[in-house]
Amino acid sequence: MAQFHCSSQRKEDMKKQLNEISRTSRSIKGFITRYILNTKTVLDGESVKRVAFGEKQKNKPHKTILIVGETGVGKSTLINSMVNYLLGVESEDRIWCEIIETKGDQTDSQTHAVTVYDVFTEHCPFSLTVIDTPGFGSTEGKKEDLSVAESLHELFKSKNGVHELDAVCLVMFSSTVRLTERLYYVFNAVLSLFGNDVEKNIVLFITHASAKSNNAIKAIKESKVPCALTAEGDPVYFRFNNSHYEDFDDEKISDDYQASLKLLNTTMESFLTFLKEIKPINLKKTEEVLRSRKQLTASISNIQDKIKLMELKQKELKDTKEALKKHEKTIDSQNWEYYVNEPYKEKESIKKSFWSMFPEATCCRVCEENCHYPGCWWVSDLSWCSVMDSMGNCTVCTGKCHYTKHVKEGKIYVTKTRKVKKTKEDLKKKYETKYGDIKNFMSGIENDVREMEKEKIRLVKECHDCVILMEDIALKSDSVFTLQHLDFLIEKVKETGNTDQVQKLEEMKKRMEENSAKAFSVFKSMQ
């Protein structure tokens, strides 16, 4: 047997463990006998479960992988295949061990929680943790998809959770010829949980694969999904053949069974070589990078809103200045009135789009600002929202208010204008204390206009700096969202006269349009 480069002693240890499994495990007889492994429950929560097979050995190398894919793609069977490899099952054994029962009430499609499987065997040179996610795109709908992301985030943050990851495995059917909008969403929903340092650890698992099953590989290349690449620029992938798991009672599957185990051994040896060579992801660092990236993204939107509001206030002051000029001769002798377009904020329902599939936003009730939109759609406790710091204060809104001053709902603040009547008395209330004589009000208004222009320039620079920094740390999947802001930002930077910044932003826009062609086409198709 090729796996583990087994010595005779190790082979003997494997047989002893398989004999112990056959003696103590529930079995389902057939041409191939299935054994449902006895596991120990480590954690049994509503959203995250953890079970273990065998006893942990501290000095043994440990690998952790995350399995992600649509409902029905064969993730449970794939995990069981790995377990059989670790147990050293050979075709002549005519047995199949399952840590996940694939026939009955515990099927892949029935899984509603993120489940962590720790697999420890005495004779293996390493141990393995597999994080299994409920199938995305199930009949439960998008709310179920959101709970997957929230559960994973909880697992990564928890003191007793998973803090290091060796690989993120995207599972696909070998027959996949193109990424549907749904599948593209699935992958991006999961990849959004990580920083850009995870890309080299993302691999493809191809199920129901034949020797020439390259459709899925081509689909991934065309879609530009971030993943590890070979020296030739092709996605790193591993093939699994699920064909013999349909009917364990049929003797005709004998050849398929042997061929599948042979492919499994070859695939797992290649995969373990990959795991040995790749540097694991520090999820603590990833969580920090992710939070910084999301805070920057939220800041860009928030600053953009502030710039628009500032411009409307500048327009209101200019209208006031014109009214003051018009009534300059009668400024002291009589009362007079004028009209301005006064900016104000009003909450409106969020319109659905590609970037707001789950139309909710985190907004500050005190500052009346949109602090995170598109928001942390998987967050139920606002203290977990990415824009909140470790003390629970918002990093985005003007007042840096506590999360308890925020609300998450399907509405955002929208800046509008309304025609409002003003009088000389209104001007006096605003400027008399500071400037005394009403004849000096003009200089007061001009000073306010200049101060607002300075603040606008500061906000434009802040927005520019956020875009540059975010592009440095963002995954490719975020480029489309940044792209939506660039036209606005380029226009505002032009108004400040900074030609160097304009040139850099235009170069960034061109590069992002080329790199994000696939994602942008999906975005446009869903408007």
Please characterize this protein's 3D structure.
By secondary structure, this protein is α/β, with parallel strands linked by helices. The protein contains twelve helices and 18 strands. The protein has helices at about 10-25, 75-85, 140-155, 180-190, 215-225, 255-275, 285-325, 425-435, 440-475, 480-495, 500-515, 515-525, and strands at about 25-30, 35, 40-45, 50-55, 60-70, 95-100, 115-120, 125-130, 165, 165-175, 200-205, 235-240, 280, 335-350, 360-365, 370, 405-410, 410-425. The strands form five sheets. An eight-stranded mixed sheet has the order 3-4-7-8-5-10-11-12, sandwiched between helices. Strands 1-2-6 form a three-stranded mixed sheet. It has a three-stranded antiparallel sheet with strand order 16-15-17. Strand 15 (about 360-365) and strand 16 (about 370) form a beta hairpin. Helix 9 (about 440-475) packs antiparallel against helix 10 and helix 10 (about 480-495) runs antiparallel to helix 11. The longest helix has about 45 residues, at about 285-325.
Task: Describe how the helices and strands are arranged.
Layout: H1 8-24, E1 26-28, E2 33-36, E3 40-44, E4 48-53, E5 62-69, H2 75-87, E6 95-98, E7 114-119, E8 127-132, H3 142-157, E9 164-165, E10 167-173, H4 181-191, E11 202-207, H5 215-223, E12 237-239, H6 254-277, E13 281-282, H7 283-326, E14 337-349, E15 361-364, E16 369-372, E17 406-409, E18 411-423, H8 424-435, H9 441-473, H10 479-496, H11 499-515, H12 517-525
Parallel strand pairs: 2-6, 4-7, 5-8, 5-10, 10-11, 11-12
Antiparallel strand pairs: 1-2, 3-4, 7-8, 9-13, 14-18, 15-16, 15-17
Helix pairs in contact: 7-9, 7-10, 9-10, 10-11
